[in-house]
Amino acid sequence: MSDYSARVGELFDDQLKGWDLARDNYRQLDNVMTRKFSYPCFDLFVQFNPGRITSSAAKVDARSIEARPCFLCEKNRPPQQRGVAYEDDFVILVNPFPIFRRHLTIVSESHTDQRIAPNFVTMLDLARCLPEYSVFYNGPQCGASAPDHLHFQAGNRGFMPVEQDFGKKPLCTLQAANEGIELWSWEEYRRGIMTLRGTDRYALMRAFEKFYLRFELMQPDRPEPMLNIITCYSDGNWIIHVIPRKLHRPSCFFAEGKDKIVLSPASVDMGGVLITPREEDYLKITSRDINDILDQVCLTEDEIESLTSDII
């Protein structure tokens, strides 16, 4: 399978030279402010990134989606935006509203709904083809600002704390192992996470399918069970962090006045960098607020355990 790193590097160079919006927004990352919140065995970060307001505050109800043109379809993308074809079905684009120093959106060439079940294998293959990146997926009801158009995102590896935290004791425990695949659990991490690691692509796909079908039974009325997924390919292994969700946005997102915090958690937030597009929220948010937000939107460790037993 091809390594797309060189072509993507050339794409970045070209876009940052010739596309003013992208160049200006990547330069603005130099002005992003970050606060650290320390827990006993890990850190969380809150980032003030005003360029993310469109995504964080996006209206994703059915009526709003139907009323706007799809900004991921080729005919509606900015004329300056170029891409690298991936296989026959996707195109790799520079995300013009970045969180990462290298932020990609990988878009289906077809206008089809955001769904992971038939496309999980594509996510694994993308991670292998982009070894310098973490590839992530936001479900249609937990972070995707375009739930009507299938897409993944990717950012340079090492940015999200979950990447460094994986494998740390006592945070992570190996729960089960079979030939070519491992299942890891997390403890006292404020977010319920299931992590799969392995070399066997098909074993990983089977384990994810078992988990997905079990979780689907808990959320039968949704278009798909609520999931954020972060994966990378390193030293011959895929590492896949699956973060099941029970709520899209916390109550503070909808509050008024001083109680309002515009924070709409998606994969990067679940990975340990919480994005606040308003400076007032960045300045006032507390560890108590963060804990409350995560408790509202994430599953508990016990709920994760019930979903992961005997999947490998």
Order of helices and strands: HHEEHHEEEHEEHEEEHEEHHEHHH
Please name the CATH topology: HIT family, subunit A
Distance between the termini: 26 Å
Average per-residue pLDDT, rounded, comes to 95
Strand order within the widest beta sheet: 3-4-5-7-6-11-12-10-9-8
Strand content: 15-25%
Number of strands: 13
The backbone outline, from C-alpha atoms, is: globular
Summed up, the helix count is: 12
Uncertain stretches:
none
Structural class by sheet pairing and helices? alpha+beta
Roughly what percent helix? 25-40%
Describe the structure.
- The protein is an alpha+beta fold and 312 residues long.
- The protein has one domain: HIT family, subunit A (2-Layer Sandwich), CATH 3.30.428.
- The protein has helices at residues 5-18, 20-27, 53-56, 62-67, 120-129, 161-165, 201-218, 251-254, 267-270, 279-284, 287-297, 301-308; strands at 33-38, 43-48, 83-86, 90-94, 103-108, 133-138, 151-156, 172-178, 181-186, 194-198, 227-234, 237-244, 273-276.
- The strands form two sheets. The protein has a ten-stranded antiparallel β-sheet with strand order 3-4-5-7-6-11-12-10-9-8.
What descriptive keywords fit this protein?
ten-stranded antiparallel β-sheet, 312 residues, alpha+beta, three-stranded mixed β-sheet
Short description:
This protein has 312 residues and is of the alpha+beta class. It is 31% helix and 25% strand.
What is this structure's SSE topology?
Layout: H1 5-18, H2 20-27, E1 33-38, E2 43-48, H3 53-56, H4 62-67, E3 83-86, E4 90-94, E5 103-108, H5 120-129, E6 133-138, E7 151-156, H6 161-165, E8 172-178, E9 181-186, E10 194-198, H7 201-218, E11 227-234, E12 237-244, H8 251-254, H9 267-270, E13 273-276, H10 279-284, H11 287-297, H12 301-308
Parallel strand pairs: 2-13
Antiparallel strand pairs: 1-2, 3-4, 4-5, 5-7, 6-7, 6-11, 8-9, 9-10, 10-12, 11-12
Helix pairs in contact: 1-2
